[in-house]
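User: I'm writing a tutorial on reading structure tokens. Could you give me a worked example: one chain, its sequence, then its tokens, then a sentence or two explaining what the tokens reveal?
Assistant: Sure. Here is the example chain.
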Amino acid sequence: MRFEFSTATKIIFGAGTLKELEKLLPQYGTRAFVVSGSKPERAAPLLSLLDSNQIRYSIFPAGGEPSIDDARRGLAQARASDSDFVIAFGGGSVIDTGKAVAALLTNPGDPLDYLEVIGAGKPIKNASVPFIAIPTTAGTGSEVTSNAVLASPEHKVKVSLRSPLMLARLALVDSELTHSCPPDVTAYSGLDALTQVIEPFVSNKANPLTSSLCWEGIQRAMIALPQVYENGRDVNAREEMALVSLFGGIALANAKLGAVHGFAGPIGGMFDAPHGAICARLLPFVMSANIRALREREPNNPALAAYGNIATLFVGKDFVRDSDLLSPDLSAQGVSQLCEDLEVVPLSAYGITSADIPVIVEKSAVASSMQGNPIKLTVGEMEQILAEAL
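And here are its predicted structure tokens:
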């Protein structure tokens, strides 16, 4: 058995830990490039810490999921302000923007030189400038991943800059920063977090270290996600989901994802649909398709047993029939019920129709995440997943 494992240089986790950043800031630089959400005033607690340390900063509001042009604009501003380190304070899109800028500051050229699938795919050779990631949602785990997802409107797809050299120097996860998330954001980001502990758990690149994190995360999410959706002020549930998101980010960076994210990149590039919402809708249908394919073509694949382990978490639930007990199919059934409880909408709500399925399948087949799926899905199986999710 051989595997590799890498993550952020330092992780600080816990409610109220943002204040601990103050004493650490001087070691990263003197001129910060701060990537925030579309409302920079929400980053006021961070900016106060920078002020108290006499650290100059330039603020870059990143609204929505980042594009290649967003990365270019951020890079130009960071260079103009002579920034020597980057801080991202926000959701996964904000963190991906900051991560991309931090990498491009030390690697010459255009983002397309390094992007996979649509770009030249050149390796990133130089370590990013010091990068600090501070998530304000519990979903993507981007604070500990080694890639930055960027949209290309021209190609109608989302692709990644990817390198272990892009890992954050510090990932600071303070669950108190997620308390203001509304129910829909909580649901979709939380289901994205769940997806990102399920997909590496069954991935063809799974290893004992990532599987341990995933299994812990899956169990916590099944309890905490419904709780925090019902009561966003549930402090314990908020902290649990922040931990699930962290586990998922670490796992996916070391064990790959699967078909859910393989579909999500092209769909997100073609339609104005939030990433978490796409993943949430696709997850139970991908699980069902994988289980059927594994049972038919690779019954000894360890992923089938992994789905069986997830199924045990739903035994005793109201929707369970006796015949479902301990069947891997129950894992998909249970996740489907969870998505229904969290009011996940169909893909058709974002304007996706059956006519779009062939193009989505064609683009998804070459997506990086699709390569981690536990079994290679046929075109027909991929088409069926999308048809069921409409």
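What the tokens reveal: The chain has 13 helices and eight strands. The radius of gyration is 20 Å.
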